[in-house]
Design goal:
Distance between the termini: 106 Å
Oligomer: single chain
Shape: elongated
CATH architecture of the largest domain: 2-Layer Sandwich
CATH topology of the largest domain: Heat Shock Protein 90
Helix content: 40-55%
Radius of gyration: 36 Å
Structural class: alpha+beta
Number of domains: 3
Strand order of the largest sheet: 2-1-5-4-3
C-alpha cells in the first residue's frame, strides 16, 4: 500500500506573530526556506512580500542574503550544535552603501521533532554605530582641545608669574616686594594645577602629584638652602575635582609660605610636612612645621591677607580649621567630615594634649624627596 506523505501545517498564531512583528523577522525551515517574513523585514530590505515565502534565504532579493558563513551558522543552529547571538554581518546591496546588521537566531520547539523551525531576527545598527563613532570623535576632540587650553593657560600663568617676579626685583619697598612675591607664589600654585589638569583624565586631579609639583615650585623660589629647609609631601591616592584642588592648593600655598617666612628665623633648620588623607567623603589636610611655633599674647601677629584667604577657602570647602602647638612648631589642620559622629570624636581628640600633633607623625615617611 502506497504511503501518503504527511503535510505539515504551521500554527496560525506563529505566522501571525511573525508577519505582524515591528522587528525584521524571518521564519525559516531547517533547509533555510522562508515560511513567513515580517512586514518590517520586507520594508527595511525592500523585498516584495508576495515573492518571499517559499524562497531559499540565499535567493531573497538579488541574492544579497547568500552568505555562506550565515548559512553555516543557521545549519548548526537547526542541528542544535550552536546558537546565533548578536552575530554581526556586513550587508551589501548593489549600488548601496554597506549596512551593519546584528543577527540572532533560535529554534522554535512546537513538539514536532521532524520539522525544525528557525526564527531569525535582524537589527540594522549602522546608524547607531555611526552616531556612537561621531560621539566618541567629538569627546576625543573636546578632550584634546581642553588639554590644549589648559596647557596654554598654564603657560600664560607662568608668564604672569615671571612678570611679577621681575617687578619684585625692581621695587624699592620691602613691603611691596613681599606682596609681589606672594602674588607670584599664588599664580604658580594655579599654574601647577593647570599642568596637572592637562595630564589628567576625567577632569580629576591626583593630589599627591599636584602637591609635590606645588611644593617643588615653592621650594625653588623660597628655599635658598635645601640642606637647611625642606618640604615633605604625605598624600594618599586621593583624586578630587578640579575646583576642589584649586582651593586645596591655595590653602597649601598660603600655609607653606607663612611657615617658610616665619617659622625658621636666623638660619634655623627644619621641615614642613604637607599631609592629606581621605576616607570616603571625609578628608583631612594639615600643614605642620617644626619651627619656633606661634607667638602668644602681645607678640601674636595680626591676621593678614593670607589668614583671610585660608579661612575663606576652608569655609568654601566646608572644613573646620584647628591650630595647635606641634612642640616644636605649629600644626594647622583642616578637616571635612560628613558624619556628625566622626566630628564629635575628632573634637574630643583635639581637646586632648598633643591631640592634633599626633595626627601627623613626627618623622613621616617621605612620599616626595625634600626640596
Amino acid at each position: 500500500m502506497q504511503k501518503i506523505p504527511t503535510v505539515h501545517f504551521e500554527a496560525a498564531s506563529t505566522l501571525a506573530v511573525v508577519v505582524s512583528s515591528n522587528e525584521p523577522l524571518l521564519f525559516l525551515s531547517d533547509d533555510q526556506k522562508v515560511i513567513a517574513a515580517s512586514a518590517s523585514f520586507c520594508r527595511v530590505f525592500d523585498i516584495d512580500p508576495k515573492t518571499v515565502c517559499g524562497q531559499s534565504l540565499s535567493d531573497i532579493g538579488n541574492g544579497e542574503w547568500a552568505m555562506p558563513q550565515l548559512a553555516s551558522l543557521l545549519t548548526a543552529t537547526a542541528s542544535g550544535s550552536a546558537t546565533i547571538e548578536a552575530y554581526e554581518i556586513d550587508f551589501q546591496r548593489s549600488n548601496q552603501k554597506a549596512r551593519r546588521l546584528v543577527v540572532n537566531a533560535r529554534t522554535l520547539d512546537d513538539g514536532d521533532i521532524d520539522h525544525i523551525r528557525l526564527l531569525l531576527a535582524i537589527t540594522d545598527v549602522t546608524d547607531v554605530r555611526a552616531e556612537a563613532r561621531l560621539k566618541d570623535d567629538l569627546v576625543r576632540d573636546n578632550a584634546i582641545l581642553l588639554q590644549e587650553v589648559q596647557h596654554r593657560v598654564a603657560n600664560s600663568l607662568q608668564i604672569i608669574a615671571s612678570v611679577l617676579m621681575q617687578s619684585a626685583r625692581r621695587v624699592q619697598s620691602e613691603e611691596a616686594r613681599g606682596h609681589l612675591h606672594n602674588a607670584h607664589h599664588r599664580v604658580m600654585s594655579i599654574a601647577a594645577l593647570q599642568r596637572q589638569l592637562s595630564m589628567s583624565n576625567g577632569g580629576k586631579v591626583e593630589l599627591r602629584t599636584y602637591f609635590t609639583q606645588l611644593c617643588q615650585s615653592l621650594g625653588a623660589s623660597m628655599i635658598a638652602d635645601p640642606e637647611r629647609l625642606s618640604i615633605q609631601v604625605m598624600v594618599d591616592d586621593s583624586a578630587v575635582e578640579a575646583d576642589v584642588s584649586v582651593r586645596l592648593g591655595l590653602v597649601v600655598t598660603e600655609l607653606a609660605i607663612n611657615a617658610l617666612k616665619h617659622a625658621f628665623p636666623v638660619e634655623r633648620p627644619g621641615a614642613i610636612v604637607i599631609a592629606y588623607r581621605s576616607s570616603g567623603k571625609d578628608w583631612t589636610l594639615s600643614v605642620t612645621d617644626n619651627g619656633i611655633g606661634m607667638p602668644a599674647g602681645r607678640d601674636a601677629p595680626k591676621a593678614g591677607l593670607g589668614t583671610g584667604i585660608v579661612e575663606a577657602l576652608a569655609k568654601s570647602l566646608h572644613g573646620d580649621i584647628q591650630l595647635s602647638d606641634a612642640g616644636p612648631g605649629t600644626a594647622v589642620t583642616i578637616r571635612h567630615r560628613e558624619s556628625a559622629g566622626l566630628r564629635t570624636d575628632l573634637s574630643t581628640a583635639a581637646s586632648e594634649p598633643n591631640g592634633l600633633r599626633n595626627a601627623i607623625p613626627a618623622e613621616p615617611t617621605r612620599l616626595a624627596p625634600p626640596i
